[in-house]
Amino acid sequence: MTKRIAFQGEPGAYGHQACIEARPDYEPLPCPTFEAAIEAVRLGHADLGMIAVENSTYGRVGDVHTLLPESGLHIVDEAFVRVHINLLGKPGAQLNQIRSAAGHVVILPQCGKFLRSHGIAPVTSSDNARAAMDVAAGEDMTAGALASEMAAKIYGLDILARHIEDHDRNTTRFLIMARDPDLNRRGKHGMVTSFVFRVRNIPAALYKAMGGFATNGVNMTKLESYMVGGQFTATQFYAEVEGHPDDRNVQRAMDELDYFTDHIRLMGVFPAAPRRHEKAKP
């Protein structure tokens, strides 16, 4: 039986590209929302889920970090996709004709300089590939879509301008989710342990909780906070550290964290992708 990997968006979305690059032996399954992609994995309609979590230009993707802890799924891998943004138009359209361009709310700021310099109005779409689909289905020669070259091929659109992203290293990071955790692997480039936690309501609790990672030599690569339950006082943190829970220094750090928290949930243990260690160009 063919294995499937769910992603948010229509065929030709960057999530689709991520699936093909990271899991070429899986059949991509398009889903209208991140919630639907997660549910597809939960219900067994897909074996894995490809979930976008952050972009190097835009930052954190929407409410994904609030969805993941409640998903019941586990992070088993990560994937980095170089996002080349293209302006697509109907066959025969010219760049100077385009008056508006549609794309997902995350992608619009990634090519803001290009849109402003060409007097093109940004229009929000539920998905970049959906924007391409809508342009292809319509009759408006002044409407464009911000999407991948794959989307241009799928929907029969012309590429009016290539690689219009503001930054030449524009990259989106995806997390690969599964129903079951995989704690036995050891990656060539190291391991990453991800978890969510809430600190106890005592003075300097977060400072004290983080101290265990410093004293045990554990590198924390990500720490993000977000509110839960609609309360300003209920803050949850998402964290990633280098190492495996079986590593003695990680064990000691997590034990110290446990003392200052009232909730910890392991989200995943996965090999660090090579792209994590790429150095920025001077």
Automatic annotation (TrEMBL):
Which of UniProt's keywords are assigned here? Answer: Amino-acid biosynthesis, Aromatic amino acid biosynthesis, Lyase, Phenylalanine biosynthesis
Entries under InterPro entries matching the protein: ACT-like_dom_sf (IPR045865), ACT_dom (IPR002912), Chor_mutase/pphenate_deHydtase (IPR008242), Preph_deHydtase (IPR001086), Preph_deHydtase_CS (IPR018528)
User: Which residue numbers delimit the Prephenate dehydratase domain?
Assistant: 4-179
Q: In which pathway does it act?
A: Amino-acid biosynthesis; L-phenylalanine biosynthesis; phenylpyruvate from prephenate: step 1/1
Q: Where is this site: Essential for prephenate dehydratase activity?
A: T172
A single GO BP: L-phenylalanine biosynthetic process
Q: Which residues form a coiled coil?
A: none
| Chain ranges of the ACT domain | 194-271
Q: Which Gene3D superfamilies match?
A: 3.30.70.260, Periplasmic binding protein-like II
- EC? 4.2.1.51
Keyword Amino-acid biosynthesis, does the record have it?
A: yes
Give the catalysed reaction(s), semicolon-separated: prephenate + H(+) = 3-phenylpyruvate + CO2 + H2O
Quote a single Gene Ontology cellular component term. Answer: cytoplasm
Source organism superkingdom: Bacteria
Record keywords: Lyase included?
Answer: yes
GO molecular function list: prephenate dehydratase activity
The molecule here is called prephenate dehydratase
This chain's source organism reads Octadecabacter arcticus 238
Organismal lineage: Bacteria, Pseudomonadati, Pseudomonadota, Alphaproteobacteria, Rhodobacterales
